[in-house]
Amino acid sequence: MSPHADPAGFRAAASRFSTGVTVVTSSDADGAPVGMTANSFTTVSMQPPTVLVSLKRGRTWQAVSETRRYAVNVLGADDVAICRHFAGAPLAQGAPCLDERDGFFLLRQAIAQFGCEVVSTIEVADHTLFIGEVRWCRHQDGLPLAFYASRFRNGLGAEIKPGDALAYPAEGWTV
Ligand SMILES: Cc1cc2nc3c(=O)[nH]c(=O)nc-3n(C[C@H](O)[C@H](O)[C@H](O)COP(=O)(O)O)c2cc1C
After folding, report:
1. How many domains, the chain?
2. What is the pLDDT of residues 14-66, one digit of tens each?
3. Domain assignment present for 56
4. pLDDT (tens digit per residue) in 103-137
5. Which residue's CA is minimally distant from atom 19 of ligand 1?
6. 166: CA distance to ligand 1 center in Å?
7. The domain that contains 111 carries what CATH number?
8. How confident is the model at residue 144 (pLDDT cuts 50, 70, 90)?
9. CB count, 10 Å around CB of 169?
10. Which ligand 1 atom is at minimum distance from the Cα of 84?
11. DSSP 8-state class, residue 102
């Protein structure tokens, strides 16, 4: 048996872990905002409030490495174009507006924002886990953008209540 799972199979299986979508922002050496789409955002601890993002080497990685600060902007369901912009497919009308607060760059339509200071980093393969303590955060109501099976979704399905019968597909496993 190979020591590693087949990459295509791994990608497909991992895509079944549904996530929200964020834009991680920081500032470059000139103080200008940079950002990238990331769905690796995870809460780590409540006390103190701690999160992590897993970033591949690139402009945003460089900025976070140097400033040791980043903001996480949780996208709403209407923000697929913004998600694509920060994943390398620029918006025709130009970069989305980012507000500055205490040196963090924020998307005002985000449904949650976290301002973080890096307290620890872990190198893993071609990514770095940036573990950040949350200095402040805020949120507003709105439907979340979700990512599942490599597609964007309106993140709120029907609520499942105790006793609801769940239908499972009959096809079985894809290897
Ligand atoms: C839905 C989605 C989620 C992504 N999540 C991550 C992620 O968690 N970490 C990462 O390194 N790249 C992720 N990417 C890819 C980056 O957004 C993309 O490579 C980006 O252009 C990197 O920008 P940068 O070079 O300015 O850092 C994701 C892309 C998409 C569309």
Report:
1. 1
2. 999 999 999 999 999 999 999 999 999 999 999 999 999 999 999 999 999 99
3. yes
4. 999 999 999 999 999 999 999 999 999 999 999 99
5. 87
6. 33
7. 2.30.110.10
8. very high
9. 5
10. 31
11. T
Task: Determine, yes or no, domain membership for 160.
Answer: no
Q: Tell me which of 56, 80, 85, 129 to substitute to probe ligand 1's pocket, judged by most ligand atoms within 8 Å of the beta carbon.
A: 56
> What is the whole-number distance in angstroms between the Cα of residue 37 and the centre of ligand 1?
5
Ligand 1 geometric centre to CA of 141 (Å): 25
122 occurs within a structural domain: yes
The burial of 133, by beta-carbon neighbours within 10 Å (0-12 exposed, 13-18 middle, 19 or more buried), is given as middle
3-state helix, strand, coil in the chain (%, to 5): 15, 45, 45
Q: Can you give the length of the chain in residues? A: 175
Question: Is residue 171 over pLDDT 80?
Answer: no
Compute CA 85 distance to the chain's CA centroid, rounded to the nearest angstrom.
14
Ligand 1 binding pocket (C-beta < 6 A) is 21, 34, 36-40, 54-56, 58-61, 86-88, 147
For residue 81, the enclosing domain spans: 7-154
* Spatial separation of the C-alpha atoms in residues 153 and 62, rounded to whole Å: 30
Does residue 162 fall inside a structural domain? no
